[in-house]
Amino acid sequence: xxxxxxxxxxxxxxxxxxxxxxxxxxxxxxxxxxxxxxxxxxxxxxxxxxxxxxxxxxxxxxxxxxxxxxxxxxxxxxxxxxxxxxxxxxxxxxxxxxxxxxxxxxxxxxxxxxxxxxxxxxxxxxxxxxxxxxxxxxxxxxxxxxxxxxxxxxxxxxxxxxxxxxxxxxxxxxxxxxxxxxxxxxxxxxxxxxxxxxxxxxxxxxxxxxxxxxxxxxxxxxxxxxxxxxxxxxxxxxxxxxxxxxxxxxxxxxxxxxxxxxxxxxxxxxxxxxxxxxxxxxxxxxxxxxxxxxxxxxxxxxxxxxxxxxxxxxxxxxxxxxxxxxxxxxxxxxxxxxxxxxxxxxxxxxxxxxxxxxxxxxxxxxxxxxxxxxxxxxxxxxxx
Length: 384
Known about the structure:
By secondary structure, this protein is an alpha/beta fold.
C-alpha cells in the first residue's frame, strides 16, 4: 500500500497537475488528495467518456492530464478512447480501478468487467500495468508510462487494485458553487419556417472568430466536413468520432488556455448523447467557452433519422446548468451576437434551429486527424 501523496507528488514532478474523472471507492484517497491541494486541479465529470475527452483537451492545450474511473465505467470511455485519443494520437494517463477482480469478493455488477478489464485494454491496443502498491515502484511506473506516451502519443493505463492507496481525508470543497451565478436567457426566434442552413451558420462563425485568437471544434458528421469545405483553417479541429464529446474536449482546451476563445459547434443528436456535460461545462468553464448547438432535429449524416430534439429546450437546459448566457433562435445573425457579446460570468450558449441537408458533393477532409491536431497545436503554441 502507498500514500496518495507519494504517487501524486511524483506525478506532479512528471508534469501532471490536472485530474479528470468519476469517483470509485478505491480512488477515494487519491481524489481527496488532489482536491485538497490548491495547486492541483480536479474536474468531476458526469461520465467517464466526457472525462476522457476533457482530459484530451487539456493535453492538447499543453497540460498533461490524468483520467480516473472505475472499471465498470470503462465502457463509457471506449468511444473517446478508440476514436479520439487513438485516432488523433493524444497521450493520456488512465487510472482505472479493478472492481470485480478474480478472487475479490465484490458486488455482482462488477463480475464480468472484473474478468475482462485487462483484456479490454489489450483489445483497444492500450498498454497497461498494475498501479504500484509499493512506494519504491512509483517512479518506475510513471517513467514507463511517460516514455510510452512521449514515444507513441497514445494513452497508457494503470489498473488499481483494492487497497493500493491508504486513506486520505477530504478537507476542501470539491466542486465550485455556481448556484448564485447571474445568468441571461434570451430568445431571438423569428416567425415563419425560413430556417438558415448549416453552411450559413458556419460562415458566420468563421466571420466572427479571428484565427489567431480562437479555436473551433466541430462535432462529427456533416458539421466538421462542411467547415472543412468552407475553409480549412489551422485553428480548427474536425471530430471524426467520439460523438457527443466535442463540448468536453473544448472544455479541456478552454481551461488550459483562458487566453483563447474556444468555440464548440455541436449538433442536436450529439448533444443529446452526452447531455450531462452541460452541467460540467456550466460548473467549470469560464467566459472564453462558446457553445453553439445547430439543431435540425435529425441525425443528418446517417440518413436524417429524427432525434427527440424537437421536444427539448436546450437553452433552458444551458441556463439551468449555470451557463452565463443562453440564447435561442433561428436567425444566423445570432452567431455575431453571441461571439461578440459582452463578457459574462461563465460560458455562453446559442441554440439555433437550422434546416436539414448539406451542400452538394460534400467532401471529406483529405488531411489526417493527426495532421489536423498537430497543426492546431502548433498554431496555439502547445506540444505533448
